[in-house]
Amino acid sequence: GDPAPGGPRVVLIGPMGVGKSTVGALLAERLGTGYRDTDADIVAAEGREISDIFVEDGEPRFRELERAAVRAAVAEHTGVLALGGGAILDRGTRELLSGLPVAYLSMDVEEAVRRVGLNTARPLLAVNPRRQWRELMDARRHLYTEAARVVVATDGRTPGEVAQAVLDAL
Ligand code: S3P
């Protein structure tokens, strides 16, 4: 649907560990707006951690909660909004992003292995992080790209440089 007038100034998407919250906080500071992230909104609304929602209710239910969180945030928030790494897997969530100033923060597989590696709650990534990252990126890359107005590569860049690149690109 059409974005609410005065909707988010910037929406950040991209894989976990790419720096959405760090860059988002910097962007909010530079734009003089608030920062909001849907993972935190879901945890607050549910009163439990995201990993518990996955285990107790399954990923499909999490994606529904996430879609509702994105819908509310897009309607209410006029600052910088960051989404969870898998939000774009849901068609309804993708539709909510249409027309918004969405920036995809990308990183290559080697950067992902370096930055996140084993340090994740996702058990699958622990088996063979490089292979799992490659599969995750192969499955999601086109969804990120299609949902985004701009793509900003983060490889070898500091969060401050990434934030500036987002501002320049949007
Ligand atoms: C997920 C990424 C996480 C969180 C959930 C699922 C994913 O968000 O929403 O654990 O499917 O990639 P971050 O990208 O903020 O870590």
Automatic annotation (TrEMBL):
It comes from the Bacteria. CDD domains: SK. Pathway: Metabolic intermediate biosynthesis; chorismate biosynthesis; chorismate from D-erythrose 4-phosphate and phosphoenolpyruvate: step 5/7. GO terms for molecular function: kinase activity. It catalyses: shikimate + ATP = 3-phosphoshikimate + ADP + H(+). Binds 1 Mg(2+) ion per subunit. SUPFAM superfamilies: P-loop containing nucleoside triphosphate hydrolases (SSF52540). Transmembrane segments: none annotated. Mg(2+) binds at residue 21. It is an enzyme of class 2 (transferase). This is Shikimate kinase.
